[in-house]
Structure formats: C-alpha cells, structure tokens
Fold each of these.
Amino acid sequence: MTTLRRDTLGDMPDGISVPSYDRATLTPGIVHIGLGNFHRAHQAWYLHRLMQDGKAHDWAIIGAGVRPADARMRETLLAQDGLTTLIELDPAGKSAEITGSMIGFVPVEDGNGALIAQMADPAIRIVSLTVTEGGYYRNADGGFDAEHPDIRHDAANPEAPRTAFGAIVAALKARRASGAGSFTCQSCDNLQGNGDILRETVIGLARLDDPDLAGWIESHATFPNAMVDCIVPATGAAELTLVREFGIDDKAPVTHENFRQWVIEDRFCAGRPPWEDAGATLTDDVHDYEAMKLRCLNAGHQVISNAGELLSLATIADCMAHPTIRALFRRVEMDEIVPHVSPVPGMTPEAYVDLIETRFANPQIRDTVRRVAFDGSSRHPGFLLPVIRDALAAANPIDGLALVEALWARMCEGTREDGSVIEPNDPHWTTLNAVAIAAQDDPAAWLGQRAIYGDLGADTRFAEAFARWHRAIRANGAEAAIRAYLES
C-alpha cells in the first residue's frame, strides 16, 4: 500500500497514471471555493489534462472554503500534498489516475481573511465555485435575497464576511484599490444561467454596502455561464476500500463515470486556460446546453430518486434496474420533458435521454439515492418546476411531473413504505416534513409552499393532478401509482 504524497508518486503501482509535470514549478491562477468531489473530478481534472500536455502551468488551483467541512477537507488534502486519486467506473473496467492541479488550500477561518488575501493576489485570475444549487441566496421569486441573515451580516461587516460572496466582494475591493484589476467569477454549479446568478449575488451584495464598488465590479468583472456534467458519487467506505484495492492509501479518493462535459461561455476578463484543448466546449451561448442537461439529466434524477427512496432502493443504478421506475423515467422524459428542450449541435433531446439512461444504469457507479434526493427544496424549483410551467403554458402533458411532485411530498413525510425512517435530507427538512404530514389530509398544503411553488399551486390542472396522485400514493403505494400512470 502506497501512501499518496508528492514524494511517493514514483512508487505508485503499475498502471496508475501520475502527474508528468513538475508540480514544484506550478504557480497559482485559480482559487476554487468548495473542494468537493465534483470539482476534483471535473474542473480540476480538465486542468490536470492541460498540465499533462505541458500547458496552463501558471493556472494551478488554490483550494478554499467557508464551511467547517471545508476545514476537514483542507486538512485531508494538504496531508497528501493536494493530490487526488480519480477512479473511473466504466462498466468495461475500472481505472485510476492521480491528479495534481491543486497546489494549496487557504486556511478556513472566521472572517475569511486568508481567503480574501489570496483572491486579492494579482496572480489569481479566476475565482470559481461549487457551492451547490441552494448556495446562492435566492429568494422565493428567484432573485437575490438581500434580507438573508448571512447577507445582512456581510453587508454590515464587509471586512470580515461570512459567505464566499462576501469574501469575493472584499477581494475585488482590495484589487480595485491596488490596481490589480478584476478576476473572472466562474460558477460550476447546476443552475440555469449560473454565471448570471453568481453575478447578481456578488453585485447585489456589493451594492448593499458600496454602490460605487458594485458599479466597478459590474463594469470590470465577468461571470461566464457554464454547463457542467459528470456523475460523481460521494466518497464513503466502499470508495475507500476501492482505492486501497488499487494499492493506494488516499483518504479522499473520488469515483466518477466515464463521461464528462463542460460547455463554457468564452467571457474571461483576465485570461483563462485553454480549456478547449482538454475537451471543453467554448461558446457564446450556453443556454441550450444548460437547459438540455438541467431538464433531462438533473430533472431525471429527481424523477426517480424519491420513488427509489420510498421503495428502499440504495442507488440510482438500482432505480434503473427496477422496471417500473425505469419506465417512469423513460415516459416522463420523452412525453413531458423532451418537448420543452431544444437540440444542441450534435445532440437531439431524444438521443440525450438515451445517453442519460445508459449512464444512470451503470452498475459500477454507486450514486446513492439519498445523495441525489438531497436538497429537493432547491432541486425541484431549479430542474422540474420550470418544465411544468412551460408545459402548462403550452397545454402539454404534466401528469407524470405532477406524480413526481407527489412522490417527493410523500418522501418528505420521513418514512419509507417498509416503515423505515428517512433521515432529514434537506436544509429545510423540518418545514418540509411538517407540511408533508399536513398534506396527508389536505394535498393543497404541499403546493401552498410559495417559496418552492410560487403561483403553481393556484393552477387548477396541476393542482388537481397533484392531489389525485398524492391520494393514489397514500392509498395504494408508490409503485401502484406509478403503474397507474404508465397504463394511462
């Protein structure tokens, strides 16, 4: 067993790809906030591929975070010199490589002083983030939530902010003062218009304290939209065992599927690595790519995950092996989602659903139902409800989508159909659970959550379909309700 460190790379088992570049010569160009598994399997991997080809050696990543979990990740990754073992789970066989594009990790501390100082360094030209769909401080109407306590704190304490966005604003203020110029702010989260949302959050926060600074950021910073795609499970005991089977002692390995996609608007105010040389697509309009991925893949995850949770299925591959759930996925996608998705160069929505179906069914990917179903209060409004709105406006079918929402409501009651307890799985679980229990007698209570549904609960066609499926699930169970939909 070889412990993963810079000085042991030459001792790795045969067949393990390691960095061919001299990591001691790398210099930083990117600060990334949120060093989770997805970032290390996606953006950091694209950069590693460039470095393997002798490129982008002045664009190395400095990790950062603002949560207690980030401090634990910092300790783990620094102990192995920022190296990560990536394990590709292809149905035809597993393979492993070690990536080295991250060269440091700023201290995680109250007030975020170290993070602000690092971002204020003129060498940093991109600040990127993976802070989850729910991490951008949006209000019930989808706009910037200027009244959130974290935002109010940062507006009142701009030199010692609590949030990543407050730290970005403080760093940009320092750069304006020093003449270093702006950096590009790059979201790598699954949000339609993620760059636009990041821009609204950063500028909206700056405007609360310093309107002149907000105007400077608006004029000088760039916020490219992007679509990111790679299925990356959480790391648990099985993944730690797997990396040891490769002969590597890595405390934070990452498993991933054999598919990646990154489509990026080419708007970088301070330069960028040649992402396209590593397989990314650079474009002036990422909207259709975003819509296809979010509506087909991310919404597709929500179509099956709540049903899987209720039926005690462990993984997404288990859901796809369940004939009824797989049929639900196929019909909702083709009948109710695809009509509201435009093709992109080289890919029709129908072909994309076929691709997703194969990816979801990969038995090597242990992507848990619990992970995919997490934070439904952000994911349903982000991925499913926009499709429902479009379908209602076009007088198109919404019966299966209403069933999916009813399955989520039933899941939030907190028990599976075998009687086992579903542990809290949403930042707003206490509220969701209380409303789900109230909806047992009054299904309209669920749709009355305006922070999630807005005015959708007042749409008679959607409300009636939801109530019908909610009653059917409670009377006969999830599988029987799904079968009824499939036979309709």
Amino acid sequence: MRLTEHEQAMLDGKEGPAKQKAMDLLVRYGEALGAERLVDTNNVSSSVSASSPVMREFAAKHGGGFDAIFSEFNLDSAETVKIPKIETHACQLIQAVDPDHWQTQGISRERYELNKESEEYSGSIGIQLLSTCTPYQVGNVPVKGEICAWMESSAVVYINSVLGARTNCEGKESTGAAMLTGKIPYWGYHIDENRLGTDLVEVEIEMETMEDWGLLGYYIGEMIGDRVPVINGIKGTPDHNMLKHFGAAASSSGGIEMYHMPGITADASTVEEAFGNNKPKTVIKYGKAERQQAYELLNHSAKDKEVDFIMLGCPHASLEQLWDICKLLDGRKINGNTDVWIFTPRALRQVADRSGYTKIIQDAGAKLMSDTCPAIGQILPEGTKVVATDSAKQAHYLPAIMGIQTWFGSLEDCINAAITGKWREY
C-alpha cells in the first residue's frame, strides 16, 4: 500500500499511539482488500457504544475504562491506548438501549448505567450522539460523490444509491480507525466501475405502498445477493421512505450495498448509463408471482394468529411515517394483550413531542421509543411469542435472533392487529 508522508508519519507513531494503532489497522485492512492506497474521509458513521456487561468486565480487567474498550473493539488492539478527540465528523449509530424507556424494555440498571457512561465518553471525544440507523434523517446527509466510512447496511445502501455518496459497509474497527485518522482504504464502492449495474430487474407491477417496496427489495436481495441491481419499470417517483424500506429489505436478504433506479437514484439517468460497459449477468422479472413469493418468505416463521407485540419503525420512522401511524391510531385503543413499540430517531421524537404525535400514540396505549430496536437491542416485551411488523428487515432477523414468530404486512395490517390482537391476512 502506498502511503502519503502524513500517513506514514501517523503509522510511525509521530502523532501518538492511538493514531499509530489506527493506521496499522487500516494498512492491514487495506492490504487484505487489495487496496493500493488510502483516501480522505470526513464523514464517519460508527458504533462506539459499550452497553453490555461483558464490555464492563473487559474494561475492569484491563484497567483502562472506555479507552480499553475502544482500543480492543474499535482499534483491534490488545494494548490500551489513550484515545484523543477524533479528527473527523462522526456520528453514533443505533444502540442497544433507549435510556428513557430502559425499564419498559426489560434492561437491567447495570446495562442502563453502562450505556449512559458510554454516551458520555463518546461525546467527550467528539462523536455526535445521533443514535439511529438513519443518520441521514437527522442531519448527516452526505452529498453526491462524498467519500464516507459508514456502518449499518440499510444506511449504507441508502447513501450509496439515493444520495450518490460513496461508502462500503464498514465495521467497528475500520470506522474507529477512520475517525482518528480521517483515512479509509480506497476500494469497492469508492471506485466508479464498481458502482456500475450488474443485473437488470424488470418490474411489471405497480409499486404503490410501503409494503410493495419492502417486498420488491426483499425479492431482489434474495435473487441477486450482493451485486448491483438496476431496477427498471418503476412508474412515478417513490418517496424517501419507500426507498429507505426498499434498501433495508434488499440489504437484509442479500447484502446489497448499491442499486440504481434510473432517473430516480443519484448515479444514472438511464438504464444504459447505469450499466456503462457492463452487460447484465441476469435479467429478472418481478410480477405478481414474485411478489407473493417474497411475501411467503417473509412470513415463513408465522403460524399463530394471536399477536403479542407490534414493532414499527425499522429503519427508524420519519415524521411522515409517525403521522401516518397517528392517523390510524387517533381515537382508538390498543388491545390489552398486545404491546406496540414505535421507533424513531431521538431528534425526531422531540419534534413528535412538540407536534402532539407522541400524545396520540400514548393515548392509544402504544409507546414511542428511540436509540435502538428489537433486533439490535435484543429487547421484547416479556412473554412475546408472536410479532407483527411492517419492516422486512425485522421480519428477516427477529425469527433467527429472538426465536419468535413474525408476521410481515402493511402498516394498516399491523395497526389492525394492534387493535384486535389478531393477525388477519388479506
């Protein structure tokens, strides 16, 4: 790997041990990837949270507090080094605890206190505590062509595709090193030719609802894996919530980090431009039969119609989505045997409070939460056996992570289940 004079100086330890550890990690990482150089970044989205007792035990054993945790889990260093203030703009992604609803979520006081201390530490070194899987909804909106170092699959596919920023799906180690150095290996979706389309998807049915977009994304991910689909045949213009759900579904079922909808997403105006010199590896048709196949895949774990828990807001809900929920809940009451948790970024929850949305949700018997989700936090109401959600991502992960039955459907389906306590298929 070719290093600049400044990069070599950091690797040689001339800017302190933390940056030396970070540069060592980035060089090893880049060489493993086949990257020839590093590239500058000033936009890092990472996870520096330490909300598990295991991490507390690790820190106590090594006598270094949160510096020990950062050294081990963000710099791949068994040696604890003092972590300085970070060099880049960086934000904290979704965490495992909502500090305002930790008791409702069944979180222990020890875990709550650890999360609080972790937030204080992260803020002290310069990390912005957005604590969401959708930083682009609350201020971190990279521009077309901007080199980023982001974790979180649904966020990566959104900024690569919808915004035209450039990032690979990074990990805690590479993003931890990036925020200390302002560097990341130059590879993958940073490079023009790797962003070109690989497979063509011809959509033959109308895409009208959020459910439609989740099912399309899930099917494409299943069929294409981690390549770059070009989606043709979309009539009209989907809003940002639809694209958010589409990308989250595609990245869950197949690991997609980049896609094109010519004339809609950032990188290409036409199918020809999306492919460049590439020829489609496959041409996939998506119609009614394929939609039904995706629906059955997402509902494969569900058998019982009695629903204990409704989960909404994955990826974290926007204000528009919160208002849609409010319109369906206003003046109604949640079934006494069913819990409803709705997740949104903390910054948007504050707007929801001021706008009266939170009151509508609470009056109906539901709860508005932030900072986490059931899959990341591994949190459910006690006794939950059957979940309903409008999120293809949660429907994909919850059966495996939490061992529960999960129904997937529309927002209207989920609210009806919340009111009646029963899932009704259409």
Amino acid sequence: MTPTRPARPLIALALLATLTLAAQARTAPAHAPVLAALPGQIQPGQIQPVAPGTRAAPDLPTLTLTPTLPYVHTVNVLGNGFVTVAHAILTLNAAQHPQARALAETAVQRVFAARPDLTEVDVSVYDAGTYGGFGGPLPLLTASVPRARLNDFQTWAAGRGAYERTWVNPGPAGTTARPADRVRETTPTLTTDPAAPLTAQNRARLRDTTAQVAGGEHGGLLYRARRGTTDLAALTFDDAPHPLFEPLLLDLLRRSGAHATFFVIGRNAQAYPYFVRDMAAQGHEVGNHTYHHVRLPPLSPAAVQDELQSTDALLRDLTGRPVRYFRPPGGEYTPATLQAARDAGLTTVFWTDDPGDFQNPGDTVLERRYRAHLHAGGIVLLHDNAPQMLDVLRDFLRYARQEGVALTTVGGLPK
C-alpha cells in the first residue's frame, strides 16, 4: 500500500504557522498596557477617537437655537446624503430633574422647528453636575424621535401614553463600574502570561496563527472566512450604538441592502436600547464588545466574566436572540480572555481589513485603503461613531458591489 502523503497546502500552512509562531514568541509583549481615560477627557464613543497617535476628529456641525434654551448643552446635526439627523444634549440641574420629560419635549420641538429638513431628532438628557460626555455617567433619559413620531413622543412626555423609543435611567447597573479605556486598534494582539509553561504559550500562539492563516473558526477564534470563500465579506462596526450616527448608518445599510455585525458596548446599549432593537429588526447581527469598553488582559477572570455576561444578558433581552460573537476592545486578548468567551458561548472575532477610520486619516486615505484591502472572505473593521466612516461608507458599499463582494454579517460567513 502506498503511504498517504500530506497535501502540499497543509505543509505550507504548517511551515508558515511555525515561522509566524517563532516571530510572535520573539515580539509578543509581556503584558498589555492599561490606558485609562484621563479625567475631564472626552470618553470613547462621544467623538471618536480619543486614542493616542491619532488625528483630531473633525468638529461636528452644530445648531444654535434662537432664542436659546439654557439647559441645551449642544445640538449636533449630521446627514448621510439622504437624511439629516440631530442629537440634542441637555444638562439639567437637580431642581429640573422632575421636569426632564417636558424639557426634552420642548427641546425636540425647537430643534425640529429650527431645521425643517430634519428626519429625526435624538435627545440625551444628563445631570449637569456629573455630565462627562458620551462615555461618562449615563443620561437621565434618552429618546429617538423621528419626525413622523413626534406626536407619540409628545404624548409620552405629557404622561399620557407609552412610547417605545425612550429610555429612563433606572439607577446603577448591575455590573461593576469601570472607566472606559482609550483604544487604538492596530493589529489583533495575543498576550500570553510569561509565567505560564512554554508549551501552553506556544499552543496559544499556534491556535492564533492557524486561525489567521487557515481561515474559519479555530478554538473559538475567527479572523476570516474559511479559505475558498469567493464572494462574501463580513462588515463589522465597533462601539455601537451612538445616538447621532446610528440612524444615519442604519439608513445607508438599508438603502444598499447590506447587512453587518455591530459589536455593541453594553453601557451604550443600555442607554439607547431602541437602536439595538432597530439593528436586529433590520436583519443585522448584534455582538458583544464588553459592557464598559475596557481592555481585558489586565482584568481578573471574574471581571472579564462580568463584562461579557452583563452585556450578553442585556443584548439577549433587547433582541430576543442569543449573542454569538465577541470582539475585545483594542483587539487585545489572552488565553484566559478566549476561555471566558468560550465559556459564555461566544466566538472571538477579529478582522482582516482595517482602513483606520478611528484614526481620522481623511476621506481620500480611507477610500484608498478600503479599495486596496477589501477581499472576499475578509472581515472589515469600521466604527459606527467615526465621522469619516460615514463620509466614505456610501462609496464603500457601492465599490463592494462593483467588485462582486457581498457584505454580510459575521454569522453569514462560511466557517
């Protein structure tokens, strides 16, 4: 009998994995840095990015009400080429808290009156004494008010009915509060414990390399679709939902027929639950991006479990569906992080194509990058609250169609 010979592609894969493993062993950091948000600094999610080494995000257009409302902090206005949306931020002193609904209703009416072209006004009402931006303490209440639903919102604000596109803060969340980290994604990073046996470290790195090279899911890791995928790529957005960008982003995806996976920050989902429900209702996939948007390698196993499980429970309640996918902030993980995700029934998802919208390189640079890197079987990383993402997304969706690449969810990829 002729002995069976291994296929050449498998030999090449093993050789490449070995070489990559050796390189990782030389260069892997001993530990992941903790980049805590600085006091008074804009937190992740308000106007991305805040990570070091990036260009400043362009200022968002603002609307000034005349005459002014003293409790209206800012009104941002943004469009996607089809519809225009405003987000009003209100800051109330303690004496105004009981009137929060009525004051929000007045502000929404005034914003609509000032801009007749608006399709929707979203409002976030904060306590003035503790307001710390989008990543600071949660709002007192939020609402999403499409122009066609203004009467329903006014009825709710007057206490005479229900309105499902609102959220009223019930008090502290059940998860331990943690400050959000400043994050700059470069490449996914595996950090192993230098005190662990060398065999365990090598096994973890080999699993990571195999997932990158072979494609498909390996040991709970997914970097790209299974090799041989010809016409599909996954479109993913981190840090969702954001009250100014989400309706614009969902509108563009609806018009293009593309579907995406949104990696959702739990605290954002808590404050803006109606946008998470919109994602699911429109056929998108909702994934876990931790509750507080924190780097996981420095945390204890119990803290990592808390971040994942609290977000999973919230997203299941909002969508009625199990959560299948998880992406660690910054792309940083350890073998313990991966195990915690597996224990929660989650596959850890990274990416192949990152045009760097988080770094605000400019529209021309972003367009050049995604045209160079988009390919079948890949996973595209974008951020739902990066202004330049919204600038180029319409062209990106058109370009993908021209190239014959259908953009789908992570769950839609062959694995």
Amino acid sequence: MGLFDFFKKKEAPLAQEEKESLDKGLEKTKEGFFSKLSRVVVGKSKVDEDVLDELEEILISSDVGVETTIKIIRRIEDRVAKDKFLTTNELDGILREEIAELLAENKSSDVENAFIKSDKKPFVLMVVGVNGVGKTTTIGKLASQFHQAGNKVVLGAGDTFRAAAVDQLKLWGQRVGIPVIDHGMNTDPASVAYDAVKQAVEQDADIVIIDTAGRLHTKVNLMNELSKIKRVMQKVIPDAPHEVLLVLDGSTGQNAFIQAQEFTKVTEVTALAITKLDGTAKGGVVIGISDQFKIPVKYIGVGEKIEDLQVFNKKEFVDSLFKRK
C-alpha cells in the first residue's frame, strides 16, 4: 500500500476499535463539558440570554478559545432569533450541529487533505514542536503506521540537543525495523536532515520523517535553524520538505494556541497533530485550533497505542464528543 492509498483508506469511517479508542480518549472532555452544561439548564425550559452567557463560559473553560466560542454563540443566537423559541432539551443537538458546521466550513481540516502528494518520492515530512508535547512519540507512531501499511520509511534524528530524543527515535526504529540516521548529540541538525534525505533517495524510500529541536528559544534562532534544515534538504530534493507538521499537546489547552502562534510565525506550518487528548478535559482545543489557524489538524492522539494516533476525522470527532453514555 502506497502513501496515497494509506490515506485514502483512512478517509473511510473509523473501524470499531478506532471508534472505541476515540470515545474513550474524549471521555474526560465529555464529562467536564456535559456536567457543566447540565447544571446550566437545570430548571430552565428555554435557551435565553442567561443560558447563552453560561454556555459561553463553559466553551471557553473547555479550551475552545474565545474567538471560536464567540462564533458558536452567535450562531446559536441567530437560531434562537430565527426559531423564536428553543428549548434547553434541544441545546445538545444545536451545539453539535453548529460545531460540526464550523469544522466543515474549515476545509483545511478535511481528512481528504491529508499530507500525501503521491508524485513525491520520497515524501519529506519535517516535524516541529516544543519539548514534552509528544513529538518524538508521534514520529515513532507515524513511522510504524506507514511501515505497517507497506511503505519504506527513513527517520532522521535531528533533535540533537537532547540525548533522550535521539535515543528514543533509535528505539522506535529498532522496534519497527526502520533505519534511523543520527549523528549523536550536540551535532548539526541540518547535517542529520541532509544525510537522512540523501539515504531515503538512495534506498528508494517512500517517506522520510525528520525530527527537529524541541526548543522555543529566540524566534530568530529558531527561524534560522529551521531555514537551514530546509536549505540543506533542498540540495537533495529541491521542493523539500513537502510537509511541516507541528505537534501540540492538547492537555495544555491555551498553551497549545500560543505554541501554534509562535511556530507559524517562524516557519510555514502545513499540518497539525494534537496529542494527549486522553486524560484531559481540554479536548475542545481541537475545535478552536482547527477554526482559528486554518491549518489542517491531521492527527489526534487519544491513547498510548500506536493506532491511537488517528487521522483526524471531524465527523467522527463530533459524534464522539456528543455521545452520551
């Protein structure tokens, strides 16, 4: 199965096991959201200004973000004005419809835009993000999924400022049976990227994934470093990288927004992966980030297993988010 076929397969509805993982991964977000929502509507029969004010607070506290929350509230206000009367019993359904429509309008988050250009071989994926967001683990899981689908993968251990990052990537490579190009710690990350891309070409690989330093040091340094990595890769493949994937930790809520802002200022981020949604009540961050940055959310992490790094399917996400026990 080639990379293009791999993603076409992922466009299909989630398999039962994947859907169960998604439901489980969003449990804490649902519990927090619906428990608050239940308190708002108790004893009330209609959606009035007080209900909307409290709903606004709930959405913001669920890390949907202020701008996206305001959009959602305005949409509901328009429906209240149009229909003259909406009951609190209808609120779940209305919210679900408006959030689904908001995500649908953001075509950049469509799963069919997943980062495969079938004419690019090897496909060069550069991964960025701060330390602790699950960047190296995301690379390992991605590499494993591509490998399992029959693709030839090469990894470049370009986060040379942390020995743990290099060692972790090498462990993933050993576990999956994928070559990892590394020069050890405190070496030039651009040199690692160059060698990884060169080896991927020589080995006729389908995809090469390049890790980068997980530091938000000064913007100038970060920009220079990422620009240098791009330049040296382009000596081998002129249009590399074909994708720049920013990994964000969903459990940090608003910090994820800030990191997205910082990285999009210094490099052209073309895709997002939002990790660690299991174990947090901040799953609303996926809605806000998708809406505000207009950059495809292509992966979400909903558990520890390799397959728990899922291609983001907004329909399935909304279904799980509003699925009551």
